[in-house]
Amino acid sequence: MALMTKEQYIESLRALKTQVYMFGEKVENWVDDPIIRPSINCMAMTYELAQQPEYEDLMTATSSLTGKKINRFAHLHQSTDDLRKKVKMQRLLGQKTASCFQRCVGMDAFNAVFSTTYEIDEKYGTHYHENFKKYAEYIQEKDFVVDGAMTDPKGDRGLAPHLQKDPDLFVRIVERREDGIVVCGAKAHQTGSINSHEHLIMPTISMTEADKDYAVSFAVPSDAEGVFMIYGRQSCDTRKLEKGTGIDVGNKQFGGQEALVVFDHVFVPNDRIFMCGEWDFSGMLVERFAGYHRQSYGGCKVGVGDVLIGAAAVAADYNGAAKASHIKDKLIEMTHLNETLYCCGIACSAEGYATKAGNYQIDLLLANVCKQNITRFPYEIVRLAEDIAGGLMVTMPSEADFTSDVKVPTKSEMTIGEYCRKYFKGNGDVPVENRQRIMRFIENLCLGAAAVGYRTESMHGAGSPQAQRIMIARQGNLAHKKELAKALAGIQE
Amino acid sequence: MRFGVKYCGGCNPRYQRGEFLKMISRHFQNRVDFELAKEDTLYDGLLVLGGCSNCCPDYRHFQTKTPPILVWDQDHFNQVTSQIESRLAKAREK
Question: Which end of chain A has fewer CB atoms < 10 Å from its terminal CB, N or C?
């Protein structure tokens, strides 16, 4: 099975025994849970579009390992064209879901682990690359979702992993056995972890020899013994539990998902280990994964931005303000910002290069510039969307009020619903319900459940802003710039 | 005549590529068959439907007797139909 359908994907999740906790309770049927399900629908879109001729050029690729047609999310990039198509695919999925569709972390981990294991083996004569190739073939053949898990809880940020009071604050090896290793620890903020068939674990920072038990990379099934997840709640999440609130939810069908994934004495067999103590390669793995993931945001957030720009324009139409010059100018500004982000995603892809292992890596400087812009521009796009939409997006009564037949004891003898529909009418041609829908949709993206993905994930996902600034300082080639200035200024030293 | 059709991935299309194909198919009804291009088939022609001027789909692996026709704007309709008409005319001459 090289390509699963959307339906097969959802059924495959039911076959897993993934342990999920939410609101202090174990969730037995998490596939159909109303809070979790929109994020599953989102992931399912990566399967659905791969089946459609109009999207398959971006959604699928030919495997470099087997020659078979596979989902691009399981692909090892073979050219700069592949890197560009990755960004375009992410933009497409952002447009179709207006959410974080969660499958990118696995793709980015795949490519980073593939090239890093090659170089570890080259230095140490280990067999991690062969292990990983077999694992990659398995994932491609099954068309599985992989959670690329990097971020540890980290505890005291001023202390190295081995100096933490609680040694489990970074994932670590607690036992080395003949047939494998046993690990403990946790990964935080794990996007799409519950919806994933597998977890691919990587270290989260550069390490020293003293941290070698923390320099570990491996893969386990999401339902492996000792693995469990605690669901991260989102702004306005319980609206999904209320009856008759399809409009109030904003985006009923799709959403993102993050969880804390705990590894409590989890056994990893030898053939699923991709790094085990080679501390001097942890930095390479982190840098490569982060580079890919910073590129990713130049696609996915742009796709969501496309939808938000469209939503703001629709709100302007419904408000009767579309012809105002300042509204038009704000929409232009939003588009300018959004396409600037896309430029960065495409640029770091076009300037990619082949690694020793043969897959393609993005240009690190440009990918970091891409992500640095992502930490800012979606916030400005949101600000402009709120400006255009107006205060109604946060002050509008509930859907239940709009449909209420409770009569108000007034002279008019109108119902609450009639009052709502009377006073929230905008542009005369537009049904009030449409106005409700677009306002709630904008609310969802700007400060509701989807803001997790569009705002704070833009800030901290793939590394917080300072992480990119460190990389920009390293990659910026300042010495060359100084030489250029000295040469033109006639300075000889 | 048999044409293969290859779509781009549609990340930011400037027009409805599916609708464009329907219009082309209607125009050549009973004269040209359009189908999603397959790698193991030799086509009389290949229609590549890009969503923008980048027209990025990879179509080099498809086999076609005549050069591919690239589309990235719905205004290409007349151009495309005249190109296919002239290929039909040449085929009749043979």
Answer: C
* Residue B94: predicted pLDDT: 79
Nearest to A352 by CA among A47, A115, A82: A82
- pLDDT single digits (tens) A469-490: 999 999 999 999 999 999 999 9
Q: Which of the residues in chain A have pLDDT under 70? A: 1
Task: Report which DSSP code applies to B86.
Answer: H
User: Which class would CATH give A287-477?
Assistant: mainly alpha
> So what's the pLDDT on residue A322?
97
Half-sphere exposure of A111 (CA within 13 A, CB side): 35
Whole-prediction pTM: 0.95
pLDDT, tens digit, 9 for 90 and up, residues A41-81: 999 999 999 999 999 999 999 999 999 999 999 999 999 99
Q: Cβ–Cβ of B9/A58 closer than 8 Å? A: yes
Interface contacts A/B by beta carbons within 8 Å: 44
Average pLDDT over residues B37-60: 95
Residues 76-115 of A with CB under 8 A from B: 81, 84-85, 88-89, 91-92, 95
Distance CA A339, CA A305 (A): 9
Annotated active-site residue in A129, A189, A197, A293: A293
pLDDT single digits (tens) B10-23: 999 999 999 999 99
- The pLDDT of residue A1: 66
Residue A191 a catalytic site member: yes
The domain locations on chain A are: 287-477
Closest chain B CA to residue A55: B9
**Residue A266: CB atoms within 10 Å:** 21
Name the minimum distance, in Å, from the CA of A314 to any CA of chain B. 18
Alpha-carbon gap, residue B30 to B35, rounded angstroms: 13
Cβ–Cβ below 8 Å for B10 and A54: yes
Chain B residues touching A58 at Cβ < 8 A: 8-11
Phi, psi at residue A361, to the nearest 5°?
-110, 145
